[in-house]
Amino acid sequence: MSTVKSYFILILLVLSAVAYIGWRVMVTIPLQQGVLSMVFGIALVVAETTAVAEAISHFINMQTSKTPEKPDIPDDMYPDVDILIATHNEGADLLYKTLNGCLFLKYPDKSRIHIFLCDDTDRAEMRRLAERMGVGYFGLSGNKHAKAGNLNNAISKTSSPLVATLDADMIPKADFLIETVPYFFLPEMIKEDGVWRRREQGESDENAKVGFVQTPQSFYNADLFQFNLHAEKNIPNEQDFFFHEVNVSRNISNSVIYAGSNTLISREALKKVGGITVGTITEDFATGLNIQSAGYITYAIKTVLAHGLAPNDYKSLIKQRQRWARGCVQALRSSKFMTRKMPLRTKVSYAASFLYWWSFARRFIYVISPILFVVFGIVVVNCEMWELLMIWLPFQIIYTIALKTMSGNIRNPRWSNITETIMFPYLIVPVVIEAMGINMKKFSVTPKTAASAKNSQFKYAIPHILMSMFSALGIAYCLYYFFAMHSFGWIIIFYWLCVNLNSLMFAIVCIFGRVEYRENDRFYAKVPVSLQVESSVIIGETADLSEAGMSVLLENPEYLPYKDSYAIELTYKDYHAQIMVTTKHVRRDGDVWRYGMKLTGCTEENRRQYLQIVYDREHTLPKSITSNILKDIAAAVLGLLTKRATSHRKLPRIPTDLVLPTESGQMVELISYNYEYVMVKRKPGLEDDPTILWGDRFLLRCQRVRARHVRGEMLFRIEDIYRRY
């Protein structure tokens, strides 16, 4: 959308919002209908006002902010970098993949990259892993400050000018440092006539120093919303909107949020603020705030440079978001935020962050308000029908357009409502408690594990079920009043209830969960492969791959062993791996044949190369919304009703249209064969062990297995194949 059109929408939003909120405050609060009406009426006005204020703040940031251009710097300017990988209780297999990614990082002088495994539980297996991978190790026992103490311990024992922080599950792409380090030299570089050069003495601002560069937290597995709602092909990860749009838009106000991982930080800035902030449950958020308060510039970029694991069960998701919510509120409240030496625009941006965590309380108000009015007779808004049409409706249309413009193609208002509805019952109380000064002191680690068999529990959906029942009852009342009393005013309440019920039903489906059959997440990626079966080399390409196996597409059906292993070679970017696989299943897929293969073994070096082929790439989940409400409902319903189809066929069943003779002179009509069995049309008198003459090249000695009387087919096992000449 053009800048002029965006600013026009922003102006309309501000003007309509002022008019609407003014009308709501001055006219519609039910002050004379009792205490409950007044309380809930005021609550709804406050919810709408804070939502509009947050939206306007984000809209302004997004229209005025942009990612700075990365400068080109000479190789000798790339400094030493310490990479700190924080671990608490994660397994060695998970850390192996992260360390492996770090070891393949590109850099002009790789001797300047110093990798450290920072283990705050001082485990022997982590020490052995570090030795095996050839990286540094910092073990820590009795750590009182959780992740912050773990990182500060490592920072005190290292010395590089730049420090990269990675969570245990975040596997960096090879370009991570090449894409982030140059931003720290922006104050020293200038671009003239399309060419970057170093500033001369006196040209640069010595006070302009970069504190950190935050890259997106990206996930290679479907998050809980995508997976449980069967929407992993229709909607992006729920966090993409924040990291690709919201956080990047905060560049303009120097209020970029440090997310704790996938970040490159100036050691000088860390020293100036006393290291990673302790005494808070979100040390990353507080540290970023301190670095900005100290006068450092911070940047967020859109380029995805690492991938990790999203929480895969509802309990873990809620635990994570409660920590984020309480940590944000805690940091802004306890740090005397408003008295900090920060520009007003920075403070406004952080105030919007504070308001975001109240969106879950707003969602509760939005859900409960029409129920209170229709089912319990509690007036929440005191107005006439014509006022809704003349004031509420125009504002609602402009507000919706503005939200869609702001969200782009990553998020829309409907999906925002759904995700907030899924989480709100369990985030309201923690935010209120933290705002009252009752701090959460214990740091909790978000589990970094593969998906479980069933990733949720019924008890968490009880609030949503109750509100769904009351919403459905309210809809029934609306229909009765509309048809019995011919009152058109009920249409708006009816619409409001339907929107809420839609979000509540999606929430229930999401919380009920979905069975995950795969142990490893896969990437839909085409990688050239060559299969070595006996003396033959077969060329194909992958359809998808994971660390445990892959699907390979071949133009023609081939006999690939399923009891024994065979070699397959893959080449991608600078990586080359030869691994051993076995065939698990095969099926026809359009004009090609799809073979599912399981990895059975390889050397250490080939495993490392193969893991890079799997993980050093863009994730293959959606990057934009490609759905609508009907498509989303259909996907969820079909996903619930459709049973998983499992293929056990390990050899290609090849259809034929041949009539061949047997050695005894009988003619048989071949229906299909798969190298081990042959299916023929049932024929009276056909011997049980015929030898079929296949052209002038082969003799197939067969043994009957069974006959299908209904379909008129006979199945024979191929005992031996002989060459005729």
Description of the structure:
It is a single chain. Helix content is about 40%, strand content about 20%. By secondary structure, it is α+β, with helices and mostly antiparallel strands. The protein folds into four domains: about 5-65 and about 360-425 and about 455-510, no CATH class; about 75-335 and about 340-355, Spore Coat Polysaccharide Biosynthesis Protein SpsA, Chain A, CATH 3.90.550.10; about 530-615, predicted glycosyltransferase like domains (Thrombin, subunit H), CATH 2.40.10.220; about 655-725. The chain has a seven-stranded mixed sheet, sandwiched between helices. A six-stranded antiparallel β-barrel has the order 13-14-15-18-17-16. The model has no long low-confidence stretch (mean pLDDT about 90).
Oligomeric status of the shown chains? Answer: single chain
Biggest sheet layout? 7 strands, mixed
Output the number of helix runs: 20
Uncertain residue segments? none
The CATH class of the largest domain, by name, is: Alpha Beta
Number of domains: 4
In the CATH classification, which architecture of the largest domain applies? Answer: Alpha-Beta Complex
Strand order of the largest sheet: 3-2-1-4-10-8-11
The end-to-end distance, rounded to whole angstroms, is 72 Å
